[in-house]
Amino acid sequence: MAVRLALAMLSEVERLLKIASLYLNIVLATFDGEMQVVGVDNTSRKKFDREEYLQRAREREEQEAEGRKSKSRGPPVQRKPLKPRDYQVDLESRLGKTQVVTPIAPLSQQAGYYCPVCECVVKDSANYLDHINGKKHQRALGMSMRVERSSLEQVQQRFESLKKRKDPGSFTVQDFDERMLKQQQEEEERKRLRREKKKEKKKEKASEEEPEIDPDVAAMMGFGGFGTSKK
What we know:
elongated, about 230 residues, mainly alpha, two-stranded antiparallel sheet
């Protein structure tokens, strides 16, 4: 057993000596210049070509400058000032109606209020009014959010038109009396029609409740002379 152990130790020592001699030969060959080791040099920091990266930076800046020039806006758009609407906003035409809504239906046929200018659907009337009075909608119509300043002549003309519309000379006390009399007559006529309708309903109800008797049967039972005898 001891001999085997000794032989194993000798073989291990020989192997280590061979490895040591191999490394020693490599080191000596490197120092003497007789051998060059080929591999990857990962023991030092990577070196960058400064001129190359400066050239890349200049090219990128030139491309960005050209892109900004191509995307540059033209002269500012001159928009018209705000103007009052010349139409009545429709908020009640679809009130109380039932509508079948499908996902493939166009926007104009979906539930809510459709804006053909902005091509969008608003779910309720309050938001719809906010939308058509908002900045986005007015810009789509070609108007800004600024109101045109009225001149002195325009203000005077507006006052004159309002005075003509509310002229007290166009309405007299006699006109008021005539209107009151006409209103009273219309009220009396409505009351008379209601009374007549009530009387007709009572007559119809009484005729429905009165039993219908066959005249032959009434004669057999002795009721044929009721209400028909003549003196």
